[in-house]
Amino acid sequence: xxxxxxxxxxxxxxxxxxxxxxxxxxxxxxxxxxxxxxxxxxxxxxxxxxxxxxxxxxxxxxxxxxxxxxxxxxxxxxxxxxxxxxxxxxxxxxxx
Length: 96
Fold this sequence. Notes:
Number of domains: 1
Structural class: alpha+beta
CATH class: Alpha Beta
CATH superfamily: Lrp/AsnC effector binding domain/regulation of amino acid metabolism (RAM) domain
């Protein structure tokens, strides 16, 4: 089950390309999926992943990006997009 993180009045959304080490794509995918606010959107044949991260503050986004970078098996991660939404809707969809 994945649940979005929104407790404050600001929502930070970032898109990140993650490069796992050789042969580590599935393990990295599982580790990233377990992190709060992370959603995996695509995995390429070479293992590269496109993910989004949601956080409720700039500081929390920095911590989340650092956590992605420090995930065991990740060679590098590049933030390619960041957006801040003030006053997000109170209801966010929850996938189960």
